[in-house]
Amino acid sequence: MANGNRAQATQRPRRHFNLKSRVATCFLALIVLFGISLLIIWLVIGPKKFVYTLENGSVQNFNLTDNHLNATFDFVLRAYNPNGKVSVYYDYMESTMTYEDQTVAFNTIDPFFQPHRNVSRVETKLVALNLTLSPSTFKDLRIEKSSGEIEFDVYFKSRIRFKVGLWKSNHLTQRIVCSSVTAYLSWYKHFEKIPCEVKDYMAELF
C-alpha cells in the first residue's frame, strides 16, 4: 500500500506539470499565429506615412501694447494621405501657436474625414486677444516686429481613427509639430512652406 501511494503521489505532479506545459505551448502558438496574421495584414495594406506641410500663413492686425498682444494668424495645413487602403477620421483637432515656449494663440478645428490617396487642406484661425506677455517675451516680440518678420512654432493635436475596409481602429493621439514658422508682417513677402513632423503613434506604426 505504501508503494502504491508513493506511485500516485509521483504521477500527480507529473500530470500537473504536463498540463501546464501544454497550456503554455498553446498560448505561445496563439501569440505566434496572431503575430503572423498582423504581419500579413500589414504587408497587404502597405501603410505609408501621412505627410503634413504648413503651406500658407498670414498675420493681420498685429499690435503690441503694454505687455499685451493682439493679432490674428491664419494658417493652412496640407494633409496628404498617400495610402491606397487606409482612410482616417479626425474626430477632434486643435491648433496652438507658441513663441518662446509661451502659448500666444489657440483654436479648435471642425472634425473631418480624409479618404485614401487624398490631399486635404485644413484652415485654422488663431487669435491672440489682449494676451498678457512676460516682459522678456514682449521685448523680443517688439524687436522682431521691427524687423518685419516673427518666428513661431505651430502645433496640431488630433484624436484620430484609421479605417481599412469595414474595420476602424480605436482612437489614437496624433501631434503635428511645425517648427520655426516665419510670419511676415510685410505684404510683399510670401510665406515659405514648412514641412511638419508627426509625433507619437506614427513612430510606432511606421
Short description:
The chain is of the alpha+beta class and 206 residues long. Helices cover 30% and strands 51% of the residues. Residues 37-45 and 202-206 have low confidence and may be disordered.
Total helical elements: 3
* Gap from first CA to last CA: 67 Å
Major β-sheet profile:
7 strands, antiparallel
CATH fold description of the largest domain? Immunoglobulin-like
Provide the β-strand percentage band. over 45%
**Structural class designation:** alpha+beta
Mean pLDDT: 83
Give the tally of structural domains.
2
CATH architecture of the largest domain: Sandwich
The CATH class assignment of the largest domain is Mainly Beta
Name the helix and strand elements from N-terminus to C-terminus, one letter apiece: HEEEEEEHEEEEEH
Shape: elongated
- Uncertain runs with pLDDT below 50, 5 residues or more? 37-45, 202-206
Number of strands: 11
Rg, alpha carbons: 28 Å
Residues in helices, as a percent range: 25-40%
Transmembrane segments: 21-45
Pfam families: LEA_2
Domain Late embryogenesis abundant protein LEA-2 subgroup: 77-172
Main location: membrane
Topology:
Elements: H1 2-45, E1 51-65, E2 68-81, E3 87-99, E4 102-109, E5 112-114, E6 118-132, H2 135-147, E7 149-164, E8 167-168, E9 172-184, E10 194-195, E11 197-200, H3 201-205
Antiparallel strand pairs: 1-2, 1-10, 2-6, 3-4, 3-5, 3-7, 7-8, 7-9, 9-11
Keywords: Membrane, Transmembrane, Transmembrane helix
Transmembrane segments: 21-45
Membrane topology: Single-pass membrane protein
